[in-house]
């Protein structure tokens, strides 16, 4: 006796002996859904949809696969495979870790991090020596006499000096690397200049030969007068004062920058020579008194302060002027966006002079889009100028903290000043690290 195979599959699926109980999606035990094997085919790999999360991880939906065992219509050979979530490396790092890695990857970031660590250890040593910190640290060192407490705190002091010497070695290595790079750059520039000069001489020789061979032309050509030459050259007659102010600003900025760099580099050079000569290690093991080259380094740093303050004052004034100009551009863009009649007149004038095929029904839409684009550009320029002003103000505060210790050390060389040195170093390095993280 023959029967319909589809009915046999349906009966086999409804049979309790062939259909075991499985755990449902929400944790409840119930009859498993047993679809027909003829109607269910696992999707090919090429057709499986993949989803990319915002953190970079690739997520694939669940796939229905057939194990190939069991009778047709049996639900035991149908398995649901859910892929595991594998977060990417970029998502597992986190924003704080990326910021720290970005800061420490630069030369300025490493130097400021070492300066912060050295200043913190020096601050800890000065605080414990003067009984400034509160228990439980004070309870361990407070009852001991001053000499014994100084011996106990000696490792902290020596560790701070080791970090300071490491920072000096970093500075020395950076100078050596920059010197080698500059030497290679100068050599390449000289070779390029020499080759350009040879090419120019050859071209001049060929031009002179051509002029000797060619017959002299008796026809004289009159060159037309170009009335737009001053406008194209950038020397517009309407703004001579602004151009003069800009040129003077560039001259003063370059002069103050050169003075600051020369004096600052000379100060660091004296400090490095003293460290390599061993004089700094000798006086630092006894007390924090600066003699010889260390004293000269302090005075050179003191002389570098006035041009540094003048340079930042010029940069701050220029940045504030940029803020005012950007604010005026924003207001002008807002006025143009709010005045459609003026915009229509401007577009019509452009169409008349350029001959562009602008249809009148499309002029308001094009005008509105251009006004929005001008407004967005003006707002972006304003935000950039305001950010520059804030950055310059924080840099000026960092210079002021460094100047506090430098002036105090120059005026009172025989007085102990660990606390002032550590506080000024911590504040200055934290400000600079914050600026590097925000950049």
- Give the helix proportion (percent range): 55-70%
Report the β-strand fraction as a percent range. Answer: under 5%
Q: Would you report the number of β strands?
A: 6
Query: Strand count, sense and closure of the main sheet?
Result: 2 strands, antiparallel
Q: Could you give the order of the helices and strands?
A: HEEEEEEHHHHHHHHHHHHH
As a whole number of angstroms, the C-alpha radius of gyration is: 38 Å
Number of helices: 14
Global outline: extended
Number of domains: 2
**SSE class:** mainly alpha
Distance between the termini: 85 Å
Mean pLDDT equals: 69
Strand arrangement across the biggest beta sheet? 1-2
Unreliable sequence segments: 1-40, 42-67, 75-83, 85-92, 218-222, 234-238, 356-363
Keywords: Coiled coil
Biased composition (Basic and acidic residues): 196-213
Coiled coil: 368-395
Region (Disordered): 1-25, 196-243
């Amino acid at each position: 006796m023959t029967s319909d195979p589809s009915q046999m599959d349906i009966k086999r699926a409804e049979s309790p002996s062939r259909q075991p109980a499985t755990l449902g999606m929400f944790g409840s035990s119930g009859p498993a859904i047993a679809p027909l094997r003829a109607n269910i085919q696992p999707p090919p790999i090429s057709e499986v949809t993949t989803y990319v999360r915002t953190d970079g991880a690739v997520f694939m939906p669940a796939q229905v696969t057939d194990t190939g065992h069991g009778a047709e219509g049996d639900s035991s050979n149908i398995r649901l495979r859910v892929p595991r979530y594998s977060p990417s490396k970029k998502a597992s790092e986190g924003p704080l870790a990326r910021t720290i890695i970005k800061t420490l990857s630069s030369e300025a970031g490493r130097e400021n991090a070492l300066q912060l660590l050295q200043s913190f250890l020096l601050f800890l040593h000065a605080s414990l020596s003067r009984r400034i910190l509160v228990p439980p640290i004070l309870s361990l060192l407070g009852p001991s006499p001053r000499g014994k407490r100084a011996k106990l705190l000696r490792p902290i002091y020596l560790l701070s000096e080791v970090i300071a010497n490491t920072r000096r070695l970093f500075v020395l290595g950076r100078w050596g690397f920059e010197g080698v790079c500059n030497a290679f750059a100068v050599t390449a520039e000289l070779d390029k200049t020499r080759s350009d000069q040879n090419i120019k001489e050859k071209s001049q020789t060929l031009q002179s030969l051509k002029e000797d061979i060619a017959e002299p032309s008796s026809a004289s050509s009159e060159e037309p007068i170009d009335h737009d030459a001053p406008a194209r050259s950038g020397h517009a007659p309407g703004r001579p004062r602004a151009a003069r102010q800009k040129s003077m600003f560039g001259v003063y900025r370059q002069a103050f920058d050169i003075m600051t760099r020369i004096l600052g580099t000379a100060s660091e050079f004296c400090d490095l020579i003293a460290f390599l000569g061993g004089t700094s290690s000798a006086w630092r093991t006894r007390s924090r008194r600066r003699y010889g080259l260390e004293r000269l380094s302090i005075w050179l740093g003191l002389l570098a302060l006035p041009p540094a303050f003048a340079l930042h004052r010029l940069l701050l004034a220029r940045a504030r002027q940029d803020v005012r100009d950007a604010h005026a551009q924003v207001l002008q863009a807002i006025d143009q966006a709010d005045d459609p009649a003026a915009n229509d007149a401007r577009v019509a004038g452009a169409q008349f002079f350029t001959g562009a095929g602008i249809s009148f029904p499309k002029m308001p839409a094009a005008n509105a889009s251009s006004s929005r684009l001008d407004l967005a550009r003006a707002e972006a320029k304003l935000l950039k100028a305001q950010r520059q002003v804030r950055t310059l103000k924080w840099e000026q505060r960092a210079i002021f903290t460094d100047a506090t210790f430098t002036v105090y050390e120059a005026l009172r060389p025989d007085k102990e000043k660990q606390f002032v040195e550590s506080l000024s170093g911590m504040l200055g390095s934290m400000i600079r690290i914050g600026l590097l993280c925000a950049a």
